[in-house]
Write a structure and sequence with these properties.
The structure holds 2 protein chains of 2 kinds.
Chain A lengths: L33 E4 L2 E7 L4 H17 L4 E8 L5 H16 L3 E5 L3 H10 L7 E3 L2 H9 L9
Parallel strand pairs in A: 2-3, 3-4, 4-5
Antiparallel strand pairs in A: 1-2
Helix pairs in contact in A: 1-2
Chain B lengths: L1 H24 L1 H9 L2 H6 L4 H21 L11 H16 L4 H9 L2 H11 L6 H43 L4 E4 L2 E7 L4 H18 L3 E8 L5 H16 L3 E5 L3 H10 L7 E2 L3 H11 L9 H6 L1
Parallel strand pairs in B: 2-3, 3-4, 4-5
Antiparallel strand pairs in B: 1-2
Helix pairs in contact in B: 1-4, 1-8, 2-4, 4-5, 5-8, 6-8, 7-8, 9-10
The chains are: A alpha/beta, B alpha/beta.
Chain lengths: 151, 301
């Protein structure tokens, strides 16, 4: 992490992000943090994602991409133990939405156990780019389109 | 049913007790005779005393079993004392190339010397009481034979289980070929259990080595059918989810044709014909180039 100093006050979630206006807090009292690092949005998922949070997150990300001119989104799931078909669909939808707004999405930090479970379930998340960790994902996005991710 | 068994035993109990007493009394003689039987003679080749000692403990165990009256129970605690020893003897015979059938014959041969001794105990060997005792002893020796065979079989099963485990460990090494490039040379048939192990160790290696490229080399896989192809595709998909690009190499011409004939679609999998090609691809994608050292530089070294 680069720390808050490099981040600026506009880096933290919707409530203090000026351009996006007063974002609603969502029905569950807390939201998933969306940090902005230069031209990239960093979303760190932890634990379980409820339906309301997922919807809120999708909305936050698309609004942030539209108002700021970020070119990439990194979703860090190293703190997620269980990825089910619901979360798989949410991730794919986020990527599709970001793609429409000309931002590339990279999924970073999946654990081996999670990867095995997903494959056994037949969820290969074919449309998503993946990276080993956040650092690699940032490299990938800043290096440009040379790394396709999917063959 | 339980009642009927105990009734039967109650009837035979005097005989069983008599046999037990006989085995205790004549233990030394029995052991001496057994030491000359082929089972003991071939296992304890170094000294005859050892064979006699082993025979003595087997006779003592038989006496203990007979004393409980459960002549045909191979789980009788009386056998526990000699089970290890019998197992070692059976294993030693096995190493000499004697199979289960040969071993069964050798154990059966132990019966003759004992029954002979028992027959000599009675003034009239055809008296009902003598017959009763001989029958009890025969049953007991049959049980001994079963115990020996059961010990052999369970020892064999243990060996098989241990070797299977070792095979899984040995057969799936993950090798670091270059910075952020790992390879798994797959050898032998790929079944579900093994492909699971391969997948786990590959993903762990990707994390540990921070690998961008993973090469699955199937040179040592004899045949590729749709199941093996499915396992390969799963592994490739899992590696991709971890952010590594997977390359399948070592596809022989015959295997390539089989895959085409079976109509398996490996379109989503990156393939190369040899490990060398796969490594070259991984290196070029990382911007690494290998060039021969120029003559002047080589001389300077």
């Amino acid at each position: 992490m680069t720390g808050p100093s490099g981040n600026g006050p506009a880096g933290f979630g919707p409530p203090i992000a000026g351009p996006s206006g007063a974002g609603p807090m969502g029905g569950h009292g807390f939201t998933v943090p969306v940090l902005r690092l230069g031209d990239i949005l960093l979303v760190t998922l932890q634990g379980e994602l409820h339906d309301g949070m997922a919807e809120q997150l999708q909305q936050d990300i698309t609004e942030r991409i539209a108002h700021t001119r970020v070119t990439g989104v990194v979703i860090d799931i190293s703190g997620v133990d269980i990825v089910d078909s619901f979360l798989g669909r949410v991730l794919a939808e986020i990527a599709a939405g970001a793609g429409l707004l000309a931002a590339r999405t990279v999924l970073a930090g999946m654990r081996p156990a999670v990867a095995i479970t997903l494959v056994e379930l037949g969820l290969t998340l074919a449309g998503l780019r993946t990276a080993l960790d956040v650092e690699r994902a940032m490299e990938m996005l800043t290096a440009g389109e040379q790394d396709g991710g999917s063959p | 049913m339980h009642v009927s068994v105990s009734d039967e035993n109650a009837e035979r109990e005097p005989a069983a007790q008599q046999v037990s007493a006989f085995l205790e009394r004549r233990r030394e003689q029995i052991a001496q005779r057994w030491a000359d039987a082929s089972l003991f003679r071939t296992v304890f080749t170094v000294s005859r005393d050892e064979a006699v000692e082993a025979g003595r403990s087997v006779a003592a165990a038989l006496a203990a079993v007979a004393a409980t009256g459960r002549l045909d129970d191979i789980r009788d605690p009386g056998f526990a004392a000699v089970r290890d020893q019998l197992g070692r003897m059976a294993a030693s015979r096995g190493r000499m190339g004697i199979g289960a059938d040969g071993l069964a014959d050798e154990v059966a041969a132990l019966r003759e010397p004992v029954t002979e001794l028992l027959r000599a105990e009675f003034p009239d060997p055809y008296a009902p009481e003598a017959q009763e005792c001989l029958l009890a002893l025969t049953v007991l020796m049959g049980t001994l034979r079963l115990v020996v065979l059961e010990t052999t079989v369970s020892a064999g099963e243990e060996v098989i289980a241990r070797q299977r485990e070792q095979l899984n460990e040995v057969a799936t090494p993950v090798i670091k070929l270059w910075e952020s490039t790992v390879a798994v040379p797959l050898i032998g048939t790929l079944d579900s259990a093994r492909s699971q192990v391969v997948m786990e160790s590959l993903l762990d290696a990707i994390v540990a080595e921070r690998a961008r490229f993973a090469i699955l080399d199937i040179t040592g896989v004899p045949t590729v059918d749709s199941l093996v192809a499915q396992h390969l595709m799963k592994t490739v998909a899992a590696a991709r989810l971890m952010g590594a690009e997977c390359i399948v190499s070592g596809i022989r011409p015959a295997i390539a044709q089989t895959i085409v004939h079976l109509g398996i679609d490996l379109g989503t999998v990156l393939t190369r014909s040899s490990l060398e090609d796969a490594l070259a691809y991984a290196l070029s994608r990382q911007g690494v180039e290998i060039a021969p050292v120029r003559a002047a530089d080589a001389g300077a070294r």
